[in-house]
Amino acid sequence: MSVLAATFLVAAPDQPGLVARLAGFFYDAGLNIVDASNHTDPWADGGPRFFMRLVVDIAGLSSPRAVAALGGSSTRGALEARFGELSAALSAAWSVRYADHVPRVAVVVTRDPACLYDLVLRQRAGELACEIPLVIANHPTLEPVAESFRIPFYCLPVTPETKPEQEKSLLELLVRHDVDLVVLARYMQILSEGFLAAAPPVINIHHGFLPAFQGAKPYHQAHARGVKLVGATAHYATKDLDQGPIIEQDVARVDHTMGPDEMARVGRDVERVVLSRAVRAHLERRVIVEGRRTVVL
Amino acid sequence: MSVLAATFLVAAPDQPGLVARLAGFFYDAGLNIVDASNHTDPWADGGPRFFMRLVVDIAGLSSPRAVAALGGSSTRGALEARFGELSAALSAAWSVRYADHVPRVAVVVTRDPACLYDLVLRQRAGELACEIPLVIANHPTLEPVAESFRIPFYCLPVTPETKPEQEKSLLELLVRHDVDLVVLARYMQILSEGFLAAAPPVINIHHGFLPAFQGAKPYHQAHARGVKLVGATAHYATKDLDQGPIIEQDVARVDHTMGPDEMARVGRDVERVVLSRAVRAHLERRVIVEGRRTVVL
Amino acid sequence: MSVLAATFLVAAPDQPGLVARLAGFFYDAGLNIVDASNHTDPWADGGPRFFMRLVVDIAGLSSPRAVAALGGSSTRGALEARFGELSAALSAAWSVRYADHVPRVAVVVTRDPACLYDLVLRQRAGELACEIPLVIANHPTLEPVAESFRIPFYCLPVTPETKPEQEKSLLELLVRHDVDLVVLARYMQILSEGFLAAAPPVINIHHGFLPAFQGAKPYHQAHARGVKLVGATAHYATKDLDQGPIIEQDVARVDHTMGPDEMARVGRDVERVVLSRAVRAHLERRVIVEGRRTVVL
Amino acid sequence: MSVLAATFLVAAPDQPGLVARLAGFFYDAGLNIVDASNHTDPWADGGPRFFMRLVVDIAGLSSPRAVAALGGSSTRGALEARFGELSAALSAAWSVRYADHVPRVAVVVTRDPACLYDLVLRQRAGELACEIPLVIANHPTLEPVAESFRIPFYCLPVTPETKPEQEKSLLELLVRHDVDLVVLARYMQILSEGFLAAAPPVINIHHGFLPAFQGAKPYHQAHARGVKLVGATAHYATKDLDQGPIIEQDVARVDHTMGPDEMARVGRDVERVVLSRAVRAHLERRVIVEGRRTVVL
Q1: Nearest CA to CA, how far is B54 from chain C (Å)?
Q2: Predicted-complex ipTM score
Q3: A33 and B20: CB-CB below 8 Å?
Q4: How far apart are CA C75 and CA A170, in angstroms?
Q5: Residue C255: partners with Cβ closer than 8 Å, 6 or more residues away
Q6: pLDDT digits over B104-149, tens only?
Q7: pTM of structure
Q8: Mind telling me how many Å the CA of A250 is from chain C's nearest CA?
Q9: What are the residue ranges of helices labelled H in C130-180?
Q10: Whether the Cβ atoms of residue B257 and residue C39 lie closer than 8 Å to each other
Q11: Burial code of C1-37, b = ≥16 C-beta within 10 A, e = fewer?
Q12: What's the pLDDT band for B211 if we cut at 50, 70, 90?
């Protein structure tokens, strides 16, 4: 019998017995825990907070032991209902994602092909467990790239005047293509609070080492300041520009011989790696957002 | 009530219910799991293997619930006996260490002060939870360093002829000072198989990036080969020189302008950091040796 | 007047006045030195050795001052002849490359698309100052990739029996396309000594941290050894497998949770960056080979 | 004849012939250039700017050729006068430092011993070519550390009211001990503009990745923001807090399991390495300040 993984993410106020009770829930149902990790954050607002990621094999959901434990049913709905009861008793927030649901990712770009190529090539190489059903852009530049991979390309130009309209179209595309995750792969536009509230999760790559250089032209800022490192930050987009919870960061060394363009070139290598690591962590259901921070289990 | 941590390390053949049963053991006794992490290695020799680290608060060992669960006793011995029964049922190897036992570390050196200073300063700064009751050397050079920290210093010179005798004296010192861990902080001698079999665990820092440059003068080897990185490796000492399980490694960049001495200088910075990270991981009971590899939980 | 750069690389036995005489040569001709760097290696075989890279603006080669200094001629041939005389007096080896000659790079692959995409995308982005007139492979797998960039693709299958013949075809392709540099971008074949003697310079990416893991399946070797870092090495190919002069290396961190495939995935990111840095350094004429080592100016 | 190195640093508006004329100056005097490097910054304010570092062997200053070139004298004064004439013709700023003058470094601390130990140990190991004639502190905590190395220790407590007086005493100490460089090795005080104007160059280590987290408690700021990297910045102190020209930076990885103290521990390792690299670059006369940036040759 092969494995069918269900990944549960749980966040709860810290309390005795959490690991035992969460693990015991699946043990009682005869469902094997394939992978588990947890973390307790003593610095959380409102007191210590517990986080756990459980990857459970639910291939045996219709075994007599599971059916008995779930009150006579072998459906995912029954599993979720019972797990929800336990979570309620623990005051826990939780979510679950099944491995037979392949997440659908929309890549949103402007003109720079580097991150787009990187994401698609990793997806094709099996490094990112997702589908990329569409690429959306506000410029037509990258259409040939999308086409070379046979990915539908949608161009939604935007001006300050048409922004509300354009975001509406963008949202419709996301809904129509049943998108689970939006990746801003160097999309040089700020998304409105309303859009973000309505859209699936959005991961952005900031071409600079947050919080050092926020906003536009970070490499020019970095050069003018004479820094010796440049970096990139992948974060969930929130209404406050470049203030969203950080998922991943990295840096590379620069020196006085490099102008802003050269720094940008070095930075691009960092951006791609950082963005793909963040998307991968999200797709593997490793990231829990806690206030302005993330727990990456 | 304050926390009294007991850290359990467990390694067992992978099987359903391990997390639940191990966590449940402590939950049934009303003992809170402060921290837990686990890993399943599908590539282990002899089939998938499960590793777990559990940090348990045993301050409540004399509570009625614990006493009941442990069969009427509230001693550590009873706890260990019951845990041993569970482990036997799971075919698990295990160990436990209590936070009120401060590990005693012997630092063994030759002439180079860098790693010695580094370890002592970190211990004094509270970064390494241990005592350093003695420094042992085969040269008197570093006696003033040990004295400046008021650490007893033992000089055991060694020649090929006196090596068996010297190792015997070394072993006696370790026994007499009740040493839990030996750190070879640039000790330029190879320890015999017999010594290693009789001694507590020994961590060595290899001033080179294993397995690239084994044996003597790795920086001269690295320079002659024209490498662009130098590194250091901390590993458990085994009878095969530089072949022991690796705990930690790191590298730093070098270039054509550097001679062997300059590469060694860069390498020393890496050595110190790598050695202290490895010692710290060992002292925090995070390291499980599995064949030639380590699991660092 | 715009700049026309000529890049001179010089290697000579160390002797007084080298910088002054080399710089003075161009100053006397009224040719401006745009960039200069030099290095003296005291550890070279046969005594201290001096290396210099001079980027000279030869746009003014037909100015009266230049013509006078070059004995009445304004040709590159005259410049080279005079510089050759100076070099002979200094017992120097030297070479020159002009910016209006765009180097022609053949990318040689097997099945893995990652490095091929990376090189082509960087070339298109202006990061690599070269043309890529052809891709050569021993498998047809990557033909669609080459085609998507409209680069001619040549498939030269190879077996142990047909290897001499295949290398002959390979060499003919390189000659016919006037190739200046061959990049083995994960070409899973060893090139013969005879081929290497006849071919232009060849840069290889070794998917492992030389000299740690030579030969095949380095990630399996790395996993079995339990290393905590994986790396990649770009080097000039020589007849001794993986023993050629190293141009660039880097590493990335791995841990016990990763199997060989996961380590390979992490390693691929390192490989691409390392290979592109090495190719870039070569194309910018920064690399001088000195025995088994390189000087990267 | 042994080498006596004089290191010249030159900064000038870019113009043809600079390398040839500067190198030729020493060649004409028969003085060998041991090491040379230069850089042209096209982004400098006021037009392209040229920087050069020349290490010249002046052991032969009294040779007939040198005496002739320097107008009949063999003194350093004569050398400097002639070099000054050339520099004036090139509108160049310049300085020279001789290897037989060992720079005198004052280490200024508060309570944290890590950077103090690190600097002293590197100086003793020969990694920093300087003397450390005194340690100055505003707290007595580290007196035993200074004493263990037999370095005079001066305690100058400071309050907001006594600050002008204390800085006066500090300055007197620097003058009396003929100090060439002041290193703030975790000195938790801001120096006044007046002090900085009167004092020798001051290098500060900022325990955070500038310009990300300026001011106090950067690790608490970093933790609250949820960053995945912490860093350190060594810079010349200027009147604007943490705004001085950056000499060196580096980072280390942190994660969600670390609290502010743990981040600080990781950061301390970075701080020490970054500070010592910056001090070393300064002592080797590699650093030229250009506005808010540094050129490190």
Answers
A1: 18
A2: 0.87
A3: yes
A4: 60
A5: B296, C228
A6: 999 999 999 999 999 999 999 999 999 999 999 999 999 999 999 9
A7: 0.92
A8: 12
A9: 143-148, 163-176
A10: yes
A11: eeeebbbbbbbbebeebbbbbbbbbbbbbbbbbebbb
A12: low
